[in-house]
Specification:
TIM Barrel; alpha/beta; 12 helices
Amino acid sequence: MTDDAQTEAGGRPGKPSRVARPTGAGRRGGAAGAEAGSTTGGVVAGEHVRIYEVGPRDGLQNEARPIATDDKRRFIELLVDAGLREIEATSFVSPRAVPQLSDADELLSSLPRRPGVRYPVLVPNVRGLERAEAAGVDGIAVFTAATDEFTRHNIGMTVDESLEAFAPVLQRAATLGWWRRGYVSTAFGCPYTGAVVPERAVRVGLRLLDLGVDEVCFGDTIGVAVPSGVRDLLARAFESGIPVQRLALHLHDTRGTALANVVAGLEAGVRCFDASTGGTGGCPYAPGAAGNLATEDLVYLLDGLGMQHGVDLRGVLAAARFIGERLGRPLSSKVGQAGGWDPETGRATG
């Protein structure tokens, strides 16, 4: 995207404390390593997992078929009814860059405000922040990457330039008390330069934390990650002092590895995963970036593992079918096609 092409906002867990970088201890507001019991958590039945829904923004931004604002609103209402509590609603980008999201101001002001639900939006710069503030958001996300080549194609800047541009945005958001997220795209591989070493992505994540984000999300933008790569990246992040509680994973299922990568993340202690209902999405500036991990596939997996998440699979499938009909195509997700499964009757559900 261009430099005026991104925005996100959401609720507010609280302002992170800015601390020094101690050796061996937690960095930037939390403990790291086994001392905190967080980097070796494994898959423990009953633990809570946050599902961060990106369908309305990341899922729709690359769609050529126009989606009416009323349909987007209804889609989000169905997601809330299904139990999703963090829903990335839109992006305050230039309408020229992403026409599908040109109704961000109207959409945000019309969404139902329910206790415990937040609607993060993508914000690329100060202009986007001003629009977000006027629309009444209470949280944002900024978007950079692990490689200069990708950020040049995506937002017209190098990684360093993007971080410099984000500084006043994040500072203003902190003053307003908003929740703040920072994306590190192409954390595993770049469509322009190839494989990305973990240390490169981690360095960007650390700089985002220094700028005051509450959470860093590492993205497998073109769907090339495998479980060993996920474990390697997370190990480097923990070694650098990033607390696992402030990490999330954004996984694409381009090559069918998203759920395997989720399990690798769970085994490492990660408890926040992005997903897109209906499996829609992709990046217009990342050739070959197919759909995101489908929320319905993620919910089915977490249910089977006994993890708590508060999301109803039937409700997610209803939302997935709704948006699939508006897009004029059948669902591509596995659970979207097959439905859930009742172990007592052996029948498909949803």
